[in-house]
Design a protein that fits this description.
47% helix, alpha/beta, globular, 246 residues, Rossmann fold, 6-stranded parallel β-sheet, 11 helices, 6 strands
């Protein structure tokens, strides 16, 4: 193992953004809750069952926005028209709800700013200094803006985000395609790349892509679930990998 806590065969690091590099996962969770609770309240009345943290972890965390809408609603036996990508945020379609969530996220980011996890920044800098290649892999269409707001955009050589995925027609997590694209753009085979994820869908993507190492970042008290879904190691903070390495 190197001082980065990775096998010596790993030459590239593929980082998820929300929840791994930045504290924006809580912002996304709050925006999803506000979006779905408003919809469910209109649909079912005062006795509606609210969207909760378990719903976030199981059905939307780490997924492309429209996939998250479909997956969560299907868990409640609800099916909406797809609509179109430019649907207004007050329209009860898959894309309408997704656009409502995105508008809420942007508002919350503007109001609250973006904070990067200090341990993750330390780790990304250590990876850079050790000569490892580095990419960000995120389902967010706002990835570049978030990285810039957090002041860490310059730490990564490649960005595969929601915009790039749409342009290249790449399916999102739990499919491995976005991570595979990042490894390809870095010139690194999957077996020589490590995936860093906090979402269960990201763990599945790491396992499905046959990557060399999968690091689960336990931000939601789900260490065992991360292991069951494909993590080779689970940490509460990426700095632990630096501290534990010889």
């Amino acid at each position: 193992m190197t001082r980065l806590g990775l096998p010596d065969t790993v030459h590239a690091c593929l980082f998820d953004m929300d929840g791994v590099l930045t504290r924006t996962a809580t912002v996304h969770a709050a925006a999803w809750k506000e979006t779905f609770d408003a919809f469910l309240s209109r649909r079912d009345g005062a006795d509606f069952r609210p969207f909760d943290a378990t719903d976030y972890d199981r059905y939307v965390d780490g997924m492309p926005r429209a996939d998250g809408v479909r997956t969560f609603l299907a868990s409640r036996g609800i099916h909406l028209p797809e609509g179109s990508e430019d649907d207004p945020p007050d329209r009860d379609t898959v894309h309408g709800l997704g656009n409502r969530k995105n508008a809420l996220v942007l508002t919350k980011i503007q109001e609250l700013g973006v904070e990067a996890f200090p341990g993750s920044v330390r780790y990304a800098r250590a990876a850079r200094d050790a000569g490892l290649r580095r990419a960000v892999v995120s389902s967010s269409a706002n990835c570049q803006a978030v990285l810039a707001a957090a002041g860490i955009e310059d730490l990564f050589e490649v960005r595969i985000d929601g915009i790039v995925a749409a342009e290249r027609h790449l399916p999102g997590k739990p499919h491995p395609d976005t991570f595979l694209a990042a490894a390809h753009d870095l010139g690194t085979p999957p077996g020589a790349a490590a995936v860093f994820e906090d979402a269960l869908a990201g763990m599945e993507a790491g396992r499905a892509g046959a990557f060399g190492f999968v690091v689960g970042v336990n931000r939601a008290d789900q260490a065992e679930e991360l292991r069951r879904h494909g993590a080779d190691v689970v940490v509460d903070d990426l700095a632990e990998l630096l501290e534990e390495a010889p």
